[in-house]
TrEMBL record:
Superkingdom to which the source organism belongs: Bacteria
CDD domains associated with the record: YdcF-like
Protein name: DUF218 domain-containing protein
Organism: Thiomicrorhabdus immobilis
Residues in DUF218 domain copies: 83-249
Keywords: Membrane, Transmembrane, Transmembrane helix
Transmembrane segments: 12-35, 44-61
InterPro entries registered for this protein in UniProt: Cell_Envelope_Assoc, DUF218, Rossmann-like_a/b/a_fold
Amino acid sequence: MDELFFLASKIGWAFLSPGNLLVFFLFFGVVFLVFNKISAAKKILIPTGLVAFVLMAYPISDYLMKPLEERFSTPSVMPEKIDGIIILGGGEDLKRSLSWKVAELGLGGDRYIGTASLALAYPNVPVIFTGGSGLVSLQNSEGEGALARQILTTIGIQESRLIIESKSRNTYENFKYTKVLLPKPQGTYLLVTSSFHMPRSVGVARAQGINVIPYPVDYRTNADELRIFDFDLFDHLKALEPAWREWVGLTVYYFTDKTANWFPKPGEIVEKKSQKVIPGFYSDKVNTFEP
């Protein structure tokens, strides 16, 4: 079932990606022109052109991304004790790393910066990385886990502190496979991932019975006063693509029972058996890690 879900998600995203959709509509519009279907071509090309122009001219993608990034914030007061630091894969550029035989970071590289900072603040807890290859064509590689080990040790984290999970291909599998590796299953763990990815990640962690304290990084939106007409399509797509993917992911995960809440928020706990959402403080307990 997990295999089917993974493949379906990849095929589905190929047709739901905003960038891909623009190209698809452009292609079909040109096809209608070639066959002299002028009226049909206009109905496709004019709206597509207008949407593309607006996306290029102004960062409207921020309005889709910002609710995701604002859902969870960095703790105003960091916990005195935790049982580990969990970093989700996604900050690596697997294709380029394999191509050039060097560890390359992608847009989510801030996940490693945040993890390095926490590792210094909590020097006696394990650092748990979870992530394999999210690419269908690269399932036989060593995946993100091998890259993560190299990057984490390079930035100064002792290898003896690392717990590496490298089988997972999506957020659900991240926590499914990590759960059995946790040194304290009922402990409390700081969770590091991109801010827009945090709601879905927290929702899955709660459904798996893993107690996490969100530590979001890798913000993609602009402050209101910096949101201007700048005609930078590439920069705007860097927010639009992951934001739309997250909203789709939140919806799919909710209806496939991988989370108990469509849009998880702070101050909720989940009963493991029924996955019923209960108001309350989820991360109000901290345990001591014993090496």
